[in-house]
Structures are given as structure tokens and as C-alpha cells.
Amino acid sequence: MIRGYGRQAVQAAEGPALSAGRPLMRWAAGGVAAAVRGELDGLGVPRSKARVLVLVGGGNNGGDGLFAAGLLAERGVVVSALLVREQVHADGLAFARRHGVRILVHAPDGAPALREEDSAGEAHSPIPDGVAWVREASLAQVWVDAMAGIGVRGGLRGASAAVVGVLDRLRQGQVRPARRVIAVDTPSGLSADGGVVSGPVLRADRTVTMGAMKAGLLLPPAAGLAGRVEVLELGLEPEFAAQAALVERLEAADVARLWPVPGPGDHKYTRGVLGVVAGSGTYPGAAVLTVGAALRTGCGMVRYLSKDGAVADRVLDHYPETVTTPGRVQALVLGPGLSDERDQDRVRERLAEVDELADAAGTPPPALVYDAGALSVLPQDPQVNRRRRAVLTPHAGELAELLSARGTPVDRARVEADPARWVRIAVEVTGATVLLKGAVTLIAGPSQAFDGGKGIRTGEVGLLSQADGSPWLATAGSGDVLAGILGALLATSEAPVPLLAAMAALVHGRAAHWANPGGPVTPSDFVRALPGTLAQVLTLR
Ligand SMILES: NC(=O)C1=CN([C@@H]2O[C@H](COP(=O)(O)OP(=O)(O)OC[C@H]3O[C@@H](n4cnc5c(N)ncnc54)[C@H](OP(=O)(O)O)[C@@H]3O)[C@@H](O)[C@H]2O)[C@@H](O)CC1
Ligand SMILES: Nc1ncnc2c1ncn2[C@@H]1O[C@H](COP(=O)(O)OP(=O)(O)O)[C@@H](O)[C@H]1O
Ligand SMILES: [K+]
Questions:
Q1: Contact criterion met (CB below 8 Å) for 46 and 29
Q2: N or C, fewer C-beta in 10 Å, the chain?
Q3: Which residues contact 112 (CB under 8 A, 6 or more apart)?
């Protein structure tokens, strides 16, 4: 489980360690310097030809950058530090100077004038324009962004913003970008607390974050600017364990531990039965994908309940193990490949039938996945959805439509600018658990739905973020597969719905990768890859 913390929690965790005199900044700088050396090696740059530009802000983030600069210079790398503030971390600056780092000072408020220290590091000689540092930037194979970390307030301003603008233009003009950008703690300008991007940010290839994962690095759209994120723990694990996280991310080992594996005493009905209402004359393939994904995820039985003979025949052609007679189910997937009003009536009828069967048997009503064409038939009353295990699986456009239809007008762009906020609003408005699809999938649920995770501390957090897939997943039918995986999980496990949704997102992304690592895949490919993917995940159990 990866736990993402906000600024307050980080400060609370670091405070006692700093008071105890632990040299956290030196350790942080060591981690940054090691990451820079790793990137230089990856680019095949010999140490004698290595050049690094470190962007230095006025706080401790800049301090990390200055110590890292000194450590690199100590090893023979040519390092320049561009100070975007007059006052920077004094010990860091002294350390950098001592090891021969070239110090350039950017004028405040983005004015292009610069000055450079002389070799004694005391007087500053004026440089007429910004050419010196831009030249340095174009020569450097690695840029280290240490302008601001968790201390940032609002979007980048002044010299920091100007520097990002110039570097972005420099980068765009490059034919072959043989350069890496490493962000210290966070890409400067991003908040530790959330995923909103409110100003210019230098997109990083790699972020070395201090002490623990920051919530903002797990949340879109900010997460998309951080590149590969690695946590430098700095021995603060016990301190962070005492803090509340703002967001969580399941890892494969968590999924393995929570996965509903059948035991020797199980039979098909104890494992759980899934009903599927999906596919139509217009989109028959959605039924095949949803049923296939559920079967290959593993459940006692899949009933295809749409009562559309032509589509049912196609499903049976692909999966003869599908049952097409009505009967009791523990979960129901509604909506993939449904489009018109007749389809929606069909959803309501099938739902009424399965609820009636459950009622007659004295069992709880089945859990529900509302996907695609069924999102519009979700009951209006949030209490109704809260009482049963219901989960919605919209993408940003569908979420905007759903909220707008329920008196909370919003468009797709606003959802995409702050999905963590809108997914929570959707939980409040609908009463259901909501899985918002995208490059990063966000899941939020009514808080009581998080109680009782098997061995996982989830009580205090209402938000999960999964980023297990790749852009190859963005292909028609991909969402139908996710709905099938989630349906099978809901039918076979009593675990909290948000956890099951996060597990489904992880397995979905991994199966697409497993089907063809690093290349294109079709939803049919990743349906076929599901059993192998799961077997691999379950080795971590
Ligand atoms: N605490 C620890 O033990 C450890 C902490 N560590 C490190 O400390 C970092 C936190 O340091 P911090 O608290 O000093 O703040 P920090 O991120 O440097 O930001 C302040 C700077 O940002 C600037 N700035 C702000 N807003 C801005 C804007 N909109 N636009 C432009 N500039 C803006 C602000 O400028 P000012 O507003 O003062 O003009 C000032 O220069 C943390 O992220 C981690 O890297 C590690 O060493 C491990 C040990
Ligand atoms: N850029 C991306 N990176 C990773 N996963 C993505 C990306 N774009 C979409 N996905 C995933 O692909 C699936 C697309 O689902 P959906 O939008 O419902 O497509 P469809 O309706 O065509 O099946 C979702 O699970 C989503 O999270
Ligand atoms: K930074």
C-alpha cells in the first residue's frame, strides 16, 4: 500500500527527526545526487563530460538542491546552480561553493538580467542578459528542479515561473532530447496536498520525493508531470505511520492478500454468481468482453441476463460456459454497450427481477456496477444507492454528464482539472462508490464502505488512486473489460467496495501490460491475459 501525505503530515513527521538532529537534508541531497548520476549513466555520459544545472529556490527544497550540487561537483561533474531567490539556504550555498559549483543568480520577478559570482564566491559580476544560464541549460544533460517543494504557495511566480518558461521553450526546440529532468521532492509549483496544477511546472522525468509519498504525486493531473516517482525514506517510516494519509494506492501484494481465492469447500454458488446486462444490437461486442472478463477473473458462474437472443448467441459462441437462464446473483454489471432508451428499460426490468429473487430468498440485494449506458438509470435518491453495494464506473465526460443531470453542473474540462474533488462530490451526490476512469483511476466511496479492509488500514481515507495501466489501454472496449473484472470481484468478495474497485483497476492495467508489454493491445487480448496476470499477482500472497 502506498500512502500519499499532505504538507501538514510531512511537517509533523519531520519535526521530531529534525529536533533530534538527524541530517535529513544531507541524506535527501545524497539521494538526489545518486539519481542524477543514475540518469547520466543511463544517457551514457562519461563523468568527465557530465554537466548538470540545478535550479535553486529560497527554502529547504533549494537547500536539498545545493547540497546535491556540491556532492556532484565533488565527484567531478560540472555543476551550475541557478538561484531564483536572493536568499538561499546558507549552509547549502557554502557547501556548493566549497566544491566548485558555478553560482548564477537570476534577477527577481523574471527580469532577464543575471549576475555570476567570481571565483572567490563573494563579489558578483553582472551579466548583461540571460544568455549565460540558458547556455548552461542547453549544455547540461540533467536539470535538477529544486525551486520549491512542499513549501510552495499557489502557482509558480516571478523568476521561478520565468525559468520554467525558458526551459520549456528550450526543450521544445530540441530534436533529440538527450536530457533528463529530476524534480526534488515535487516538481516545483505542485502542491503536496492535491493534484491541481495552478501555474507553470517543469515536467519531470523522475521525482525523488523525501520521507514518504506526497498525495499530489498520486493525483491527476499533477501526477502526470512528475515522471517516475521514487521515495527516499530517510528513516521516517515510524513517524509517517502515525500520520493520516490523504490518498492511498494498492500495490500488487495488497491485491494478492485481498483476492477472493476459492477454498476446497467452495462450490460454484458459494464462490458467487455474477449477472451481466450488457451488449446490444449496436454494440454486441461489449457483452462478449464483459462476460469474458468476468469469467477469466474467476467467479462461480456468469449469467448473461439481457434476454437479447442474437447477442446471447454471440456470447455463447465465445464462452459456452455462460448461463443464459435467469436466477439469483450476488452482483450485477449493468450498462456496457447499452445506448438507447429501450436498453435502459431492459436494465430496470432485469434489476427488478434479480432484486425480487434475492428478496424471495431472504438474501441481500446484489451489488451493482453501473457502467456506460446504465449510468443514466441510477436511482436519484442517494440513500437508495448508499444502502446497497453500488459502484459507478464513469470516465470524466460521463461523470460530468451524471453530475449535471443531478443538479451539479460541471463540464469534462473542470472534472479533468480536479478529478479528486469531483469524484468525492459524485459520491455525495449519488451515495454510491465512484470509480473515475482515466490515465490515473480515482476511487472514492462513502466512508463506511472503507471499514474492515482485511489487514489494511483504510478507515481514515476516502480516496484511492491507481495508475497500473499505460496509454495503450485507451481503446474502445477497454472499459467493458474493467466492468467485467469488477463485477466478478463484487460477486465473490465481501471486502469494501472501494477496495474491490481499486483491485479491479490494478488487475485491468496489469493484464493489458501482460498481454503485450510496451505495445498495442486490444481488449480481447487483455481479457485472454487475465488468468495469467492473476496467477502472477497471487504468487505475492
Ligand atoms: N523539513 C525537512 O526536514 C526537510 C525538508 N526537505 C526539503 O524541504 C522542502 C520544504 O522546504 P521549505 O518548507 O523551506 O519550503 P520550499 O519547498 O523550499 O518552498 C519555499 C520556497 O518556495 C518559494 N515559493 C513559494 N511559493 C512560490 C510560488 N508560488 N512561486 C515561486 N516561488 C514560491 C519560496 O519563495 P518566497 O515565497 O519565500 O519568496 C521559497 O523560496 C521539502 O520540499 C524538501 O525538499 C528535505 O531536505 C528533507 C528534510
Ligand atoms: N492514457 C491512459 N492511460 C492508462 N489507462 C487509460 C488511459 N486512457 C484510458 N485508460 C483506461 O482505459 C479504460 C477506458 O475505458 P472507457 O473510457 O470506458 O472506454 P470504452 O468505453 O471504450 O470501453 C479505463 O479503464 C481507463 O482507466
Ligand atoms: K522541487
A1: no
A2: C
A3: 129, 130
- Using a 6 Å cutoff on CB, does residue 482 contact ligand 2? yes
- Look up the ipTM and state it: 0.96
Domain limits, the chain: 2-249, 252-538
Task: Classify domain 252-538 by CATH number.
Answer: 3.40.1190.20
380 Cβ partners below 8 Å, 6+ apart? Answer: 406
Q: With a cut of 50, say whether residue 200 has pLDDT above it.
A: yes
Q: Spell 393-417 as b/e; 16+ CB within 10 A means b.
A: bbbbebbbbbbeeeeeebeeeebbb
Q: CA dist 317 to 204, 268, 291, Å? A: 48, 22, 12
Provide the CATH topology of domain 2-249: Rossmann fold (3.40.50)
Cα within 13 Å of Cα(95), Cβ side: 20
Q: Are 442 and 485 in contact (CB under 8 A)?
A: no
For residues 230-246, give the mean pLDDT: 94
Dihedral over Cα of 280, 283, 287, 288: its sign: positive
Distances in Å between the alpha carbon of 294 and those of 81, 298, 440? Answer: 55, 6, 22
> Which of 478, 510, 530 for mutating ligand 2's site (highest number of atoms within 8 Å of CB)?
478
| pLDDT tens profile 76-124 | 999 999 999 989 999 999 999 999 999 998 876 555 445 556 555 554 5
Q: Is 298 helix (H, G, I), strand (E, B) or coil?
A: coil
Contact indicator for 71, 198 with CB cutoff of 8 Å: no
Residue 99 Cβ < 6 Å to ligand 1: no
Q: What is the pTM of this model?
A: 0.94
